[in-house]
Amino acid sequence: MLLARALRAAAALRPPPRHPPRRLLSSSSPRALLPPPGAVPPLARSLWQLGGGGGWRTALLRPRRGSAGGVSCGCGGLHTEGDKAFAQFLTDEIKEEKKIQKHKSLPKVSGGWELEVHGTEARLVRKIAGEKITVTFNINNSIPPSAEDETQEEQKPDEQEPDLTSTPNFVVEVIKDDTKQTLVLDCHYPEDEVGHEGEEESDIFTIREVSFQPTGESDWKDTNYTLNTDSLDWALYDHLMDFLADRGVDNTFADELIELSTALEHQEYIKFLEDLKSFVKCQ
After folding, report:
1. Which residues neighbour 164 within 8 Å (Cβ) at sequence distance 6 or greater?
2. What predicted TM-score, i.e. pTM, was given to this entire model?
């Protein structure tokens, strides 16, 4: 014990070096990967941009004296001043997101569709005349990034930022009674077809791939033939689109699916912020 005290006293009396060694920031350092201020698009819902730019984040990441070992509750976890500021920011952000939330409950899709939601995945089911039609989509990564870039260039300083719109890919499955095969159509929203009102009516979604899969099996087989519509005859493609429209999957349905997906995405985003706040506060 006395030897340890002597060593600490000697270290305290040692003069500091004139040129302290500098640690070079490598490209793999997390701080080196932080984007420069102003590099984030205005619609990007990242904590970097929502916090008012790089200054807030730099201040949040800056170490504070005495914060390294501070514990404010009985959980035994680390609680810093940065965590406190982070939690307060999330509290304010959650309030703002709830203010602009259009749908407190998920909107319904007309046409007798029943909705099933499992986290970020949703399924619409409809039964007609011996057939079962299901439409499945996932809201993860469903907001087109190109819309953010265009808005940044076209938006005027006094204009209000447009609402974010979720346009997910969706899969249509058509199952006929007493059959062992399911017709599967993989559909998506082309970016140049969404949000153009007043123009000549056209399909706002397209069929990308068509295949048959075994009915009742959750895992589809890659060995089954898949038809890509890029090189498909237009007459056959038009018949496929009419086939879907006859079963309720048309432009009206596609518009309502966008509204449903956007509401679900916003709902899950708010829930994520609430979970993040609880995690930071260790609740």
Report:
1. 43, 45, 143, 262, 265, 266
2. 0.70
